[in-house]
């Protein structure tokens, strides 16, 4: 592994342990085994290196989360799969608390990081499709544009909210069970809701 790769791995390690704003060039050097001059030579600045590392970290974490969520077996109804998906997501946040905080630190600086903004926009498109695939129980290649724009967008909207609450008040972070209960309360015809009494006939269902 050359100095460029060492620096990237060291920066990624720092994002997990120290976050974005608190990471210094010397932290990266200590974690990577490279030297200060290498940062300027390979990346131009610490900020560019950390931005590159953040893109990589977000991508790796997203892949791991989607792999965990894809293994969820919450039943055949989408609302049940939604419940199990969000439960698994909430359980995963405790292990990456510093990285989650770093993600919000970076979002606050996107106006001066157009490259990162473009990278995250592409990652969001993939995440919407992947999350819709998990909740609907279909292969990702079968997710339609409409499903990505609706189900995927809803999921991607909820995920950062849950992440933020996990930072502010971990003990009060809503899990999938609470969120699914809210959906059932808003949509009484959802499977398993109190509004679907035994023997009731739901429009569109046998």
TrEMBL record:
The lineage of its organism: Bacteria, Bacillati, Actinomycetota, Actinomycetes, Streptosporangiales. PANTHER family: HTH-TYPE TRANSCRIPTIONAL REGULATOR RUTR, TRANSCRIPTIONAL REGULATORY PROTEIN. The keyword Membrane does not apply. It comes from the Bacteria. Residues 1-61 form the HTH tetR-type domain. The keyword tRNA processing does not apply. It comes from Nocardiopsis tropica. This is TetR/AcrR family transcriptional regulator. Residues 24-43 bind DNA. InterPro entries: Homeodomain-like_sf (IPR009057), HTH-type_TetR-like_transc_reg (IPR050109), HTH_TetR (IPR001647), TetR_C_31 (IPR041583). Keywords: DNA-binding. Gene3D superfamilies: Tetracycline Repressor, domain 2 (1.10.357.10).
